[in-house]
Design brief:
The chain has helices spanning about 40, 45-55, 70-80, 115-120, 155-160, 170-185, 200-215, 215-225, 245-255, 295-315, 325, 330-345, 355-365, 375-380, 385-400, 405-420, 435-445, 455-460, 465-485, 485-490, and strands at about 1-5, 10, 30-35, 60-65, 85-90, 95-100, 105-110, 130, 190-195, 230-235, 260-265, 270, 290. The chain is an alpha/beta fold. The chain has 2 domains: about 1-290, NAD(P)-binding Rossmann-like Domain (Rossmann fold, 3-Layer(aba) Sandwich), CATH 3.40.50.720; about 295-490, N-(1-d-carboxylethyl)-l-norvaline Dehydrogenase, domain 2, CATH 1.10.1040. A hairpin with a 5-residue loop joins strand 1 and strand 2 (about 10). Helix 15 (about 385-400) packs antiparallel against helix 16. It catalyses: D-mannitol 1-phosphate + NAD(+) = beta-D-fructose 6-phosphate + NADH + H(+). This is Mannitol-1-phosphate 5-dehydrogenase. Its EC number is 1.1.1.17.
Length: about 500
Amino acid sequence: MRSLDETGIWTDGIEGVEVPGYDRATVGRGIVHIGVGGFHRAHLAMYVDALLASGGAPGWGICGVGVLAADDRMRDVLAAQDGLYTLVLKEADGTLTPRVVGSLVDYLYAPDDPEAVIERIAHPDTRIVSLTITEGGYAIDQKTGEFDPDFPGIRADLDAMAAGSAPTGAFGLVVEALARRRERGTGPLTVMSCDNMQGNGDVARRVFTGVAQLRDAELGAWVAESVTFPNSMVDRITPATADTDREALAGRFGLRDGWPVVCEPFTQWVLEDHFAAGRPEFERVGVQVVDDVVPYEFMKLRLLNATHQALGYLGYLAGHRYVHEVAQDPTFAAFLRGYMDDEATPTLRPVPGIDLDAYKDTLLERFANPGVADTLMRINYGSSDRISIFLLPVVREQLAAGGPVERAAAVVAGWCRYAEGADEQGREIPQQDRLAEEMTALARAERDTPGSFLSHRGVFGDLGSDERFAGAFRSALESLWSRGAAATVADLA
C-alpha cells in the first residue's frame, strides 16, 4: 500500500492512517459502478474495501465509470492517486478518523472511450453494475412512474445503437453491454441501484428494460427475465468536500489527497438478496441483507430524507446555512420532530428490528453534528425530484387517511418561497434544480395568482386541487411572506 506525502507523490505509510492491507494488484473487477461521487466512495466502496480487508471476496473490486463531462476531474484525481482516496469520519466533537480506501481498482471515463466501458460491463468477470446517478437521473415520467423514452439522452443512445455506434449515456452503455453478454453467452448480471428512491431496484428495472425493449424486443424480454434489480436502502450523510477538509488532512495527518471524502460515522445499507450472478458476502461487514427492503425504505425516505427537505428551505430562509445550525435550534428541532411523529410515522410499515423513537432521536443527533458541516444548499439541490420522492407520498397517504399535513404543507411553502430566488434579506438564492426556471416563474406568480406553484402537475400531480392541502400550503406561504420562516416554524413546532 502507498500513501500520499506532502508533495503529492505516493510513498510508504503514514502514521495513524488506516490503509489497505490487501494486495490490490490481485483484486478482480466484479463490480462496475456508474457515478463515482462522494456518496459512492463513502458507502459501497467503503463496504467493499472492508470486505477485502477482511480477506473476503478478492474478485469483487470496483471499476468506476464516469459518464458526465464533469467527471473528468474524478478521472484525473483517481489516476494521479492510483485509485486510492481518503475517507474521513467526522465526529461531533471534531475528531477526524481517516482511512485510505483501495476498492476502486480501475476507472473508465465514458466520454473518452465508451467502447471500453461497454466491454468492461460485458466482460465475464463483471457480475454487478451499481449506480449512483441521483434521484432525477432515472428516465421516469414523474406523473405515471413509468419509463420515459423521451428523457434526455435516451433517444441519442438508441440512435447510436441502431447505427452500430457506441452509446454514451448510463442506460445505453449498460444495455449495449447486456446485448453483447446475451449474444456471447456470457449470461446476465445484476443492476444494483444505490440511489435514494422508493423501490430503486424496481425503478431501475423499468428503465433498463424499457431501453432494451426499444433497442430489440428479444433483448428486452431477456433483460426482464434474466437480469436482477435488487431494491436497497442506503444511508450515510456525505457533504461535499471542502478545501478545509483537504487542509485538515494535510495539517493533522501529513496526507495530501486531491479529493478526499468526508462523512458522518453512521452508515446503514439494507439490501434485497436478489442477484443473478452471485454477490459479495456483504453480511460480513454489516450490511443487512433481507427479503423485503420496503419497510426500511419508507423509514429512511420519509423520516431522514423528507426531514432534510423540511429543514432545508425553511432553515435557509431563517438565515441558517448549515444543517447542524437548524437542528440545534430548539424551535426547528421541535418542528422537525413534530413532522416525524405526527405526519411521517403514521405512514410507515412496521420495521423489523428498529425502534422508531430511538431512530428519530438518532436522526436529530446526526443532523446536529457540527463536524459534518453539511450545507443547506447541498440538501436543497434537485428540489423538484426530492420533494416528489421524499415528502409528497407522505402528504398523499395522510390526506387519504384524514391525517395532518400542516407541517408538510409548510415545507412545500418553504420551497415555493425559496424558489422565488431571494431570501428574507433580499439576497439571491441560487436555484439548483432541473426545473428551476419553471418553478421560479410559478413561485413568483403565486403572489398574484394563488395556486400557480401547485399547478405543476409533473411535480404535484393533483395535489393542487386538494382543498385541504392547498389551503394549508397557502396559509403557510402567506405567513412566510408576512412574518418570516422563524415565526412560521414556531407556530407549527
